[in-house]
Design goal:
The structure is a single chain. The strands form three sheets. The protein has a seven-stranded mixed beta sheet with strand order 8-7-9-6-10-12-11, sandwiched between helices. Strands 1-2-3-4-5 form a five-stranded antiparallel beta sheet, sandwiched between helices. The protein has a two-stranded antiparallel sheet with strand order 13-14. The two termini are about 50 Å apart. The protein is built from 18 helices and 14 strands. Helix 4 crosses helix 14. By secondary structure, it is an alpha/beta fold.
Length: about 525
Amino acid sequence: MKRILFFTCFITFLACSLNAQTNADDYTIIPVDKRVREFANPNDNKTPLNAFITYIYTVANGKWQEVNSLSSVTKKRNYSPEFQEKNEWLLDYTIKEIIMYKDSVVGVIPSFNKDPWYTIWFFYFENGRWVNIGENIGKETIEDTRQLFLKEAITRLEIVHKVKLLDIVSTDTSAFVRYLQEKGKEPVPFLLNALSHHKLVVYGEIHNQKASWDLLRALIRHPEFTQSVGTVFLELSKSAQANFDSFFNNKTKEPEIILDILRNEEWNGWPDTKDMFEFILDLWDINEQLAPENRIKALAIDFQRPFHTPITTKEQYDAFYEGFIDRNLCMADIIEGHIKFSADQRNALFIVGSGHAYKSSVIVKSGYQQTGRSAVSLLLERLPKESIFSIIIHSPMVSNNGYLYGKLRKGLFDYVFANTGNQPVAFNLQDSPFGRELFDGCTAIAFRPETGTYEDNYDAYIFLEAVEEEVNSPLLYELYSDEFVEEIKRRAQVLGYENDIFWGIKVKDLTRGHIISRLKAKENCKRWNFEGK
């Protein structure tokens, strides 16, 4: 009885000290103070404790193919065989306690004996079971870690509610099929029409999607394209602009200039750009056929990257990132300035990842996006709204860092496209059954309560191929000359990465042949693994 009374008093005290906005009735603290390996693997998720233990045993035993089934719909990954390693050290986690918030969000707080910091593993009650939503670094004390959990719990609960809303999907598929039959257009004519009527057409792409770049290459080769478009904005570092200008002003085509740009976008190069590389070469060919005053301007508008400048010390690298600016803000500033002050009165095409192209003003902050706003939402406040036309390209529900969450709208869109023959099609979202569906096409904002519908975020939609048929595109092997491989190793030494494992071996031991063989192993494989295996 005394123990129960003490625990009740402790909860009351915690309510006052942790968060004045949080009612003590909203949460419960359950002490555990046992290592994971002291529990048998329950192999179920009926309780938060069981769900955590099951998850840890699964990861510890290297059974990554089973992890997705233990995770929330907001935390999936397209696991490949190289991620199947065991992590048995996780069994030595000491589970200190569990905090349950409003019976829907749980923080499991473990610590590792050699690490003074606590961590927080979040679990949700989702579709009748407890599932993992991810982990956060906690604090050095259990009290501060509890504060961090309760600070995030309210926002996390909003995600739980949004997941439930996203589960509600239209069942009248005939309305979707009918809309495609009546309003659907071929993609190239659709894009040409949009480019002739809007000052800025934003093509929200999914990186490394071959069918998408094939469409763009067909688009720029069309005779009508150069009549409407004078500028193409690309998601490359603005530091590359001088080299870009040199490439397009040369009387002979020199692909090596573009390869050098791509080598400097990341410390280890950017091989997932073969299709973009070929698009840029096509653009040079097109310009060669035009009078100088009619040539298309290519602008690199992403934020500055360090290796476009000489980096010889780790201090230089760190200092570079201390002064970087918001990526979306950088893009918006350059586009706004060019559109307002360019002498070329033709319109512009902006090719960018779809996560920078949504129209709603949802704020999602990250390391390179301090404003938390997309480039398009910022531009909508600076340019006439009717002058901007933003398009999203069909894909699975996938994040920018490789997490796969399934199919859009629980497979509804894919079902409709399959029932119209999986033929490429483009259509407006406004006043359409597609547009009225809750938006889940960009996972960075899909689970936010204020995100809205597809028509709230994009003006149009393009379907190109069934996601089940999409394969990994060929990579840009030309990037990895012997000289560049030596440069990668030099950069790794500067950054302290030389002993890290990359492409299966230590960076200091890399060779051109090894890199290319590792990259080729990914070719022509199915890109999306919906079974998580």
